[in-house]
Structure formats: C-alpha cells, structure tokens
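Q: Please design a sequence for this.
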C-alpha cells in the first residue's frame, strides 16, 4: 500500500529521499549523428559493429583519349576503327589500411586486428570483389588504390583479375591495369606527396598516357596548399605524353565546377585532426572531399575530372540526394583546388583587367563547404592596389561581396561572382561613357568658338577661301581649334579601338599625352605675344610668367580635369608596363568631323546630344529610334520621351534614383554628375531581371518535363529558345544590348508561353483549396492554376513596351 502519511508525519530521512527523487532531472540521450555520406557508416554504427569498407568512397573517372592514329584518320576523313576507345576509365579508392588515421574513430576496425589477419582479409576481400565487379560493370581500364595493404590487396586482386598487371610501391599505393595496355615506364615519388606514376600504351591504338596514382599529404595550411597544388600542376604539365592523369586521394579538397548545392563528401576527416583542429568530440564525424582527379589533354589544358561515386556493395553509381538539413554537416569552409582553367580562368582575367595589371599581382582562392557552398576571394599582394581597387569601383553595399582591409582580401559568394563582374563592367562602361560625353561636349564647345563665317557645312576649298578674309590672329585661333578638334577625334578613336575597357581607362593618359598637350596648350599668335610680353625682368622676377601660364591653361585644363575624374588610379609599377596592342580601326576624316560638328543643332546654346548616350538609354529602356531625345544644360541632362506610353513604361519598368520626373512634359531630368550612377543602376536592374527570368524559365521547364505532355510541346520549345537567348546574350561583347533584345525581340516565344494549355479540372488532378470557392461543377477550359503560377513568374520579369523590328519600322514609316 502506498504511504499516505502527510509530510508532517514523515521522518527527516524520508523527506530528503522524496526531495531527491523530485529534483532528479530526466536523462536526455544525444541524437546520433547522421551519416555524412550515405555509404560510410557513422561513428555510432561503427561502435555497434557495422560493416566497414573504408572512410573514403570508391569512385570512377573517365578520361577522353583520342589516339594519334584516330587523329590522322579523322584528318583523312577515314571511318574510325571499331577498336578505338573513347575513354580511359579508372576506379580509385583509399582502402584505409587500418591505421590510427581513420575518420571512423580511434580504433574502429577491430575486426582487422584479429589473429592471423583474418579480419582484415575479410574486409579486403569485400573491397577487391567490389573493384572487380566495377571493372566488369563499367569497363574500367585501371584501378588506383591508396593507403592500402599492398601485399594483401595484390594477392586478392590477382585472384579476381588474373590477366591484369599489378604494380605497387612501399608507401601503400597500388595501380592495376588491363591486358590491353603495356607499361612503358614506371616511377614512384614520396617527397612530400606520394605518387606512383606509370606510362601506359594502348597496344591496339598506340595511344600513350601518363597515369599518376596519388596519395597526398593532409594539410589545412594555406602555404602548403599552394605548394602541393603547384606540385600537382607541374606533374601534369611536365608529363611528356599527350595525355596525363592525376587521380586518387589528393588530401587537398576538390569541389565540382558547378555551384549547385549537393553533398560532395567523399571521405571523413581522421578523428585525430577533427579533434585537434576543430575541437569536435570523438563521436562526431567531419566531412571531407579530397578524392578525385585532373587530366592534361593534348591541347595542353588541365581539366578537372567529374567523378561518379560507386557503392561499396555492387559498384553501382550512387548519388546522395539528402538535403543539408538531413545531413547536418559541419559548416566549415575549406580551400579547394583550382587547377582547371574553367574554374576561374575568365574570372581571374576579368579581375586582372579591373586592377589594370599586366600579370596577376593577387592570389585567387576558392573555399567550399561539404555541400558545395562556395566563396571566392581575391587576396591582393600590395596595399596600394587594394586601396586603388576600392577607389576605382563602388564596392560598398554590393550584394555578395565583403572587404577585409587587414588582409587586403575581397571575398565574394561564388554564385554571385558573375553578377559582381557584370556590375564592375557596367561601372567601367559608365566611366567610358562619361569620357566620351565630355569629349563630345568639348568638341561642340570648340565648334562654337570658330569665327561665324567658318561655321556650318563648308567644303575645304570654301574654308580656305574664307580664311583669306580673316585677320592673322583669327586665322591662328582657327588653326588652334582645328588642331584640338583633331586631338579630340584621336582620343575618341583611341577609346573606341582599345582592346579592353581597362586599356581605354588605365592607359588613356600614358598613350595619349601628345593629344592631351595639344588640347591644353594654345599655338596661336596670342600665346606667342603673351610669352614675349612676359619675358621682362620684372615679370620674370615677380613670377608673372607662371601666373599667366595658369591663366592660359585654366579653360582647357578644365576639360582635361573633367576627363581625369573618370580615370582610375593605378600603381606606378603598372604604369610602366608594356603598351597593350590596339585593334585596327579606320582613320577618322578630320574635315568631315569638324564641319559636321559645327553644323550640329544647338539647344539653349549647349552642345548637341551624344548619339552614344541616347542609344544607350534607348537600348536599356527598349525604345525604338526617334522615340527619345537628349539635351543638356550646365547642370542637368534631360531625357524627353516622344510618347506618353514610352514615358510611363520607363517609369514602370525601372526604379530611378537621383532624377526628377515630369509626368506632364514626359521628361526625366538627371544631374550631369549622376549620369554614371543612373546608368549603372538601370543596367543592373536589367541584368537582375534577366537572371530572374532565367530562373523562372528553368522552373517552368522542369514543371513541363514532369507533366510528360506531348512529345513536341510548343511551350517547352519556347522556353528553351528563351533560355538559349539569355545564355547567348551573356556571352556577347555588347551584353546589355543582347540582354535587352531578349526582352523586346522575342515576343513570339512569350506569346506562346503566355497562353497555357487548357484542360478540365478532372484532367489537372487535385484542385487547390482556394480555387474551390470560385468554381462549381465541371468547368472546362480554365488554365491550370499551378502552371499559371510559373507563367506569372516569367511574365513578371518582362518589361512593358515592345521595340519595333526594322521591318515594322519601315512599315510604320511607309504608312
């Protein structure tokens, strides 16, 4: 019977015992860690006796191998021989030779320690059986093992692949290859990274390749990482054969070239390192991704090999489809190898151009998590370069970019790098646009200074005739103007013909000093008279010459200084670099230039608008020619729209900043010093709109594919055409115009997408709850609500307005 006494009747000991029972907290068992890789047991599973093969996955790589014979036959248009292999296939694995350097605990493989090695033999028998199965299943040509028991692995492989040749070294490396190949040369190296190198020749085609089986040295040190990566690069580049392959456990990190989030784990960090470097408990595993390879192709380029992971049971290709929430990996970001030029080649070249460097004075570093979440960093080697980069570009607040002044590092989210490069290019274009605009304005300023009798459309003969009626002073002044107009034309020509935007900006002053001097200094008789007047003792002593020199230069220096405001800062070491080549360009005809300029219409006494600037705005806003005019006064530039509809479209399609909109006059006014900011802001919106459209199209494309509709679906074709157009646009030299064309010149595809297939609700399956209140009974011909959501997402990215095609323009003009 239970004790029903009140607390007053209980003894002191009974009270204390009761209190202890009440205060005792429930024991909460820790949740076991999920497998970091679907085929590698967790620490908890290992301690409970789970089968273990290795703490690294087995994987397959394919190397394209065009033989010398094939190349000759292709050149002679002879049919390829049937015996020619398209790929050299390798299966690779770190077999974990029961060392203490395991990611499965301090002593996880207790079965390996049984007497007479029977435990290890069972495990290696499983491994080698799986390798032999993989050879048959995937038609592999070679096997590369690292950290293996060379005697046991060789014995078991010889039983399962009796016709194969097996080569080992004393370090734990084993390479086996099929009887189709013979070994021409063998070499082992162990300083500091362990490699077993074989030169193999295909006995049927004669093709030769170098196969480097690698077991690298584990490091988290940046300097050692650089040294090891360079060692691997040298190993590949110095191989004398047409094709060189480096494959195995690199002990550095390898991430896919793409940026899609996925589990890229190929191994588990040894427990000793995860405890020492990351202070993790022994039962917590740390994901790693060091396994993979690279090859150097006959064209001399290094390519990162795509790996296919094979299951430990059956050697089937597997892919971990679990989400990051299911796996819950450690969030560490570690550096990955970037031997493949495609990994960063174009990006590195772009930043080299932005920095105005002839060769890269910076390190390019990529880090990643085990779920392929990457960041890219530029680590500059000179503080002046770093400060100039910040000064030359507006980096503050840029999405996906952070600055570290202490380490001179610019860090970017890798998926944002293309967008950041696009924004920096827009800023450079904006500067070039302002330089051209300044040169335009100065050109018309010079035209306005000509004597009235020499303005307008005049032949050279008429000009010479009228010059005779002018005074000597007026003739000299006119010649000064002509020389400066020629100099301006040369400057415009330089900017237009520069091979890169950086050349146009960074080398502008260095390569055009003669033309700048022509603009800054007068050559008229007035200047000579003033010079003579100043060479008097009093004037010389009083410094009057210097003072008057400043007076002559003030007006012209103002124009040069305005241009210099848009030129980037550059470190002295880069200024003395060799001159960059220029593209060939037709020479400018000076007589046509200055006569046409003089005849240009003036508005409010100001220079005529720049065609380049007007065209730029028209391209962004999607307007046809003649629908927008630009003029300026001393402080502002005014965009005047010819139709109310175009004006309203411009305001609805874009968010404007630093401008004043007049709805009644259909004008947008912006300060001259804000032109770059406004253009960059508009162009960035256009790029962002294109990126959103691409994502919306991809989502709709996936939806259509899942519906398994008719084989030829016009909607799917329209989506594919638009996606292709966007991809092509981003590869064009004139990216902005090409992107704008996607919006304004693909109406046929948009019309197809805009009209979804009509079906009954019975056909479409489950009806969304919110739709039930709107419809009753069997309604036929309504759009599928889910599909309409995808279509709406696409259409939200399309700006209003439609730029007419050339044929439409001609029709309109004819009518």
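A: Design:
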């Amino acid at each position: 019977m239970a004790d029903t006494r009140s607390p007053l009747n209980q003894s002191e000991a009974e009270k204390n015992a009761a209190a202890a029972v009440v205060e005792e907290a429930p024991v909460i068992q820790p949740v076991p860690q999920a497998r970091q890789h679907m085929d590698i047991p967790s620490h908890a599973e290992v301690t409970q006796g789970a089968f273990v093969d290795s703490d690294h996955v087995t994987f397959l790589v394919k190397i394209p191998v065009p033989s010398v014979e094939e190349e000759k036959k292709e050149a002679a248009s002879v049919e390829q021989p049937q015996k020619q292999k398209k790929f050299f296939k390798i299966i690779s694995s770190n077999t974990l030779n029961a060392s203490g350097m395991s990611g499965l605990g301090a002593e996880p493989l207790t079965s390996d320690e049984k007497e007479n090695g029977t435990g290890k033999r069972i495990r290696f028998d499983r491994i080698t059986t799986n390798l032999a199965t993989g050879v048959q299943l995937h038609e592999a040509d070679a096997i590369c093992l690292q950290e293996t028991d060379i005697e046991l692995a060789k014995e078991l492989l010889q039983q399962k692949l009796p016709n194969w040749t097996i080569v080992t070294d004393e370090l734990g490396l084993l390479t086996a290859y099929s009887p189709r190949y013979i070994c021409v040369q063998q070499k082992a190296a162990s300083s500091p990274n362990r490699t077993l190198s074989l030169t193999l020749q295909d006995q049927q085609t004669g093709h030769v390749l170098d196969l480097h089986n690698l077991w690298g040295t584990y490091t988290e040190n940046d300097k050692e990482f650089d040294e090891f990566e360079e060692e691997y690069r040298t190993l590949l580049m110095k191989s004398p054969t047409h094709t060189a392959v480096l494959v195995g456990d690199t002990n550095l990190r390898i991430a896919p070239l793409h940026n899609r989030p996925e589990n890229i784990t190929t191994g588990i960090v040894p427990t000793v390192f995860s405890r020492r470097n990351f202070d993790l408990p022994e039962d917590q595993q740390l994901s790693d991704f060091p396994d993979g390879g690279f090859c150097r192709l006959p064209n001399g380029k290094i390519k990162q090999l795509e790996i296919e992971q094979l299951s430990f049971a059956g050697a089937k290709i597997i892919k971990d489809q679990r989400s990051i929430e299911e796996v819950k990996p450690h969030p560490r970001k570690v550096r990955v190898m970037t031997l493949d030029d495609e990994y960063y080649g174009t990006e590195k070249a772009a930043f080299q151009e932005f920095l105005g460097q002839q060769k890269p004075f910076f390190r390019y570093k990529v880090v990643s998590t085990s779920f392929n979440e990457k960041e890219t960093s530029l680590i500059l080697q000179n503080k002046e370069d770093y400060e100039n980069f910040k000064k030359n570009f507006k980096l503050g607040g840029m999405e996906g970019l952070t600055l570290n002044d202490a380490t001179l590092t610019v860090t970017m989210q890798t998926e944002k790098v293309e967008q950041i490069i696009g924004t920096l290019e827009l800023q450079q274009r904006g500067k070039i646009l302002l330089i051209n605009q300044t040169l335009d304005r100065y050109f018309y300023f010079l035209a306005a200074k000509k004597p009235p009798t020499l303005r307008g459309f005049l032949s050279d003969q008429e000009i010479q005739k009228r010059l005779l009626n002018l005074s000597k002073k007026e003739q000299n002044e006119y010649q000064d103007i002509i020389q400066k107009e020629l100099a301006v034309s040369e400057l415009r020509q330089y900017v237009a013909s520069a091979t890169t935007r950086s050349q146009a900006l960074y080398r502008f002053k260095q390569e055009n000093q003669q033309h700048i001097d022509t603009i800054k200094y007068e050559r008229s008789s007035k200047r000579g008279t003033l010079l003579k007047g100043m060479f008097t003792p009093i004037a010389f002593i009083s410094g009057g010459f210097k003072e008057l020199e400043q007076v002559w230069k003030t007006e012209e220096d103002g124009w040069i200084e305005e241009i210099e405001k848009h030129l980037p800062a550059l470190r002295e070491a880069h200024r003395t670099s060799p001159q960059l080549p220029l593209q060939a360009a037709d020479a400018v005809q000076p007589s046509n230039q200055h006569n046409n300029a003089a005849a240009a219409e003036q508005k409010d006494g100001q220079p005529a608008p720049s065609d380049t600037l007007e065209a730029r705005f028209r391209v962004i806003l999607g307007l046809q020619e003649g629908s927008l005019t630009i003029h300026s006064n001393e402080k502002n530039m005014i965009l005047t729209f010819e139709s109310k509809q175009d004006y309203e479209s411009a305001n609805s399609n874009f968010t404007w900043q630093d401008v004043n909109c007049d709805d009644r006059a259909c004008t947008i006014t912006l300060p001259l010093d804000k032109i770059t900011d406004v253009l960059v802001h508009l162009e960035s919106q256009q790029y962002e709109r294109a990126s959103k459209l691409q994502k919306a199209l991809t989502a709709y494309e996936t939806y259509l594919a899942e519906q398994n509709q008719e084989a030829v679906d016009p909607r799917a074709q329209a989506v594919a055409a638009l996606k292709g157009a966007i991809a092509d646009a981003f590869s064009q030299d004139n990216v902005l115009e090409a992107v704008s064309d996607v919006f304004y010149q693909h109406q046929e595809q948009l019309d197809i997408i805009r009209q979804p297939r009509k079906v009954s609700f019975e056909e479409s399956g489950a009806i969304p709850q919110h739709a039930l209140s709107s419809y009753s009974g069997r309604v036929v011909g309504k759009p599928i609500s889910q599909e309409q959501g995808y279509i709406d997402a696409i259409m939200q990215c399309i700006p209003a307005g439609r730029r007419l095609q050339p044929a439409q323009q001609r029709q309109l003009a004819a009518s």
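Q: Thanks. Anything notable?
A: Residues 417-449 form the longest helix (33 residues). The CA atoms of residues 301 and 545 lie 63 Å apart.
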